Amino acid sequence: MMLVLAISCVAQKRTLSATMFREFKPSVITFSDGHKLSQPLTNVFLKNASLLYLQGDYTMEANMDNIMSVDFQDGRSFVAINKQLAYLVDSVGSNRLYCIELFDQEGYERNLKNNINITNLDLGEQISTTTVDLNNEEDYKLPVFRHYYMFYNGQFVRVHERDLGRMLSKEKRTMMKRIMALPDFSWQRESSLKQLLKAITDQN
User: What end-to-end distance do the CA atoms of the chain give, in Å?
Assistant: First the structure.
């Protein structure tokens, strides 16, 4: 499969949390050899979109080399793209739209150093996710960037005009340009990307 790195994105939300979910949840991890493993308490680390799991009193970061997918008990499914967990946004036929969420790590660590009210939050080898207590939380929230990919005709491709256009036939490129010409189209708006996915997918 072709895996293409995402480069630039627009922040969609802001967060104080180092994890995607407020609480750790059960999930089933599928490895590249097909082996499955159930973990009772897992989450997604917004630093690099890796899998976190609780081990005793510690929050551990999983080795992403052999992880293929993670299915949380609440129904949210992730696949590993470039060793980062991407959640499913939409699907049309066999084609799918995925999103990877990441925050500004340098800004996060800078805020930790500058704010004496944050305690027991270590982003080192052993990760603790203690609640953050701030006087002005909005001042310390960091932007979360959304990186979009499509699984299109059996390959992962970054959702970008140039990269996606290389995957499309002449007819489908014309369809893409029609969607792009719509007044409210944006490469960072999920509704636009869902519309694009539908337009370039053959449906029988």
Answer: 25
